[in-house]
């Protein structure tokens, strides 16, 4: 079973890129972030024509998350995180797909930091961590994947000394990620490639992709039931080189049935 996550940076504007990648790689399940489309503007027909059923949580101009499944076995279990009734951002959707609970998330960026946006990011992280603990308590296979907007270690960022004050790399943000993982989650890419330089995002500016000046901010966290089923993981880096593409590349894992 192949599961992928992809921050598309605008699902309608990048639809040809998304469809090309889906046709090329045919993942079984796909989590999308940054749809940047209201609920009624999600390209459901085009996704269906590509062979996928979908659930999505849209928002005009910003945010937005979706889960796609080739099998059609997709049952939504949650949209949004508990703990802040005033938070209207479309950043989390969860479903039961082929026997696995899959949470698709788009964690806040947090910049400029310090300030209210960083405070919102850390608060959202706390809510995610609370929900993640609840998911683990159910003793089911769970995947939490998406754009976490955090580089966990210096290995995950090109020239880390330049990022020390950025909300994606500040100590309190990395600490929040470590606290989440410490509940019992496995960082899938680091499980298989503990010492390799792996990036999932390259800025549009200063030829970042060409220089491989990237960041690893898109992650797969696996519950203990799935750690032993992890077969492979990788980044479809070449997709970032396509014309009019997202600044993220798709990330994927393969798990045994």
Description:
The chain has 257 residues and is an alpha+beta fold. The chain has a single domain (2-255), classed as Deoxyribonuclease I, Chain A, CATH 3.60.10.10. It has 7 helices and 14 strands. It has helices spanning 15-25, 44-49, 116-137, 171-181, 188-192, 208-211, 224-227, and strands spanning 2-7, 29-33, 53-57, 65-69, 74-79, 92-97, 100-106, 142-147, 186-187, 201-202, 214-215, 218-222, 230-235, 251-255. It has a 6-stranded mixed sheet. Strands 5-6-7-8-12-9 form a 6-stranded mixed sheet. The chain has a two-stranded antiparallel sheet with strand order 10-11. The protein is globular, with a radius of gyration of 17 Å. The termini are close together. The model has no long low-confidence stretch (mean pLDDT 98).
Topology:
Elements: E1 2-7, H1 15-25, E2 29-33, H2 44-49, E3 53-57, E4 65-69, E5 74-79, E6 92-97, E7 100-106, H3 116-137, E8 142-147, H4 171-181, E9 186-187, H5 188-192, E10 201-202, H6 208-211, E11 214-215, E12 218-222, H7 224-227, E13 230-235, E14 251-255
Parallel strand pairs: 1-2, 7-8
Antiparallel strand pairs: 1-14, 2-4, 3-4, 5-6, 6-7, 8-12, 9-12, 10-11, 13-14
Helix pairs in contact: 3-4
Domain Endonuclease/exonuclease/phosphatase: 4-248
Site (Interaction with DNA substrate): 248
Site (Important for catalytic activity): 218
Give a short overview:
It is built from 7 helices and 14 strands. The protein is α+β, with helices and mostly antiparallel strands and 257 residues long.
């Amino acid at each position: 079973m192949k599961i992928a996550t992809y921050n598309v940076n605008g699902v309608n504007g990048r639809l040809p890129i998304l469809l090309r990648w889906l046709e090329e790689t045919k993942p079984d399940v796909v989590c999308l972030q940054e749809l940047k489309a209201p609920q009624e503007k999600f390209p459901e027909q085009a996704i269906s024509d590509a062979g996928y059923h979908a659930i999505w949580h849209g928002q005009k101009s910003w945010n937005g998350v979706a889960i796609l499944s080739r099998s059609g076995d997709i049952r939504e279990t949650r949209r949004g995180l508990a703990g802040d009734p005033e938070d209207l951002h479309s950043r989390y959707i969860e479903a039961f797909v082929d026997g696995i609970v899959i949470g698709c998330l788009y964690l806040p960026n947090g910049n400029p930091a310090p300030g209210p946006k960083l405070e919102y990011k850390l608060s959202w992280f706390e809510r995610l961590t609370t929900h993640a603990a609840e998911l683990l308590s159910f003793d089911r296979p769970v995947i939490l994947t998406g754009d976490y907007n955090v580089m966990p270690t210096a290995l995950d960022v090109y020239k880390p000394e330049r990022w020390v004050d950025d909300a994606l790399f500040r100590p309190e943000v990395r600490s929040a990620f470590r606290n989440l993982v410490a509940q019992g989650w496995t960082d899938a890419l680091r499980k298989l490639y503990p010492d390799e330089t792996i990036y999932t995002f390259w800025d549009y500016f200063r030829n970042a992709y060409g220089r491989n000046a990237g960041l690893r901010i898109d992650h797969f966290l696996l519950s203990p039931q799935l750690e032993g089923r992890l077969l492979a993981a990788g980044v479809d880096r070449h997709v970032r080189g396509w014309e009019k593409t997202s600044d993220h590349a798709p990330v994927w894992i393969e798990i045994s049935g």
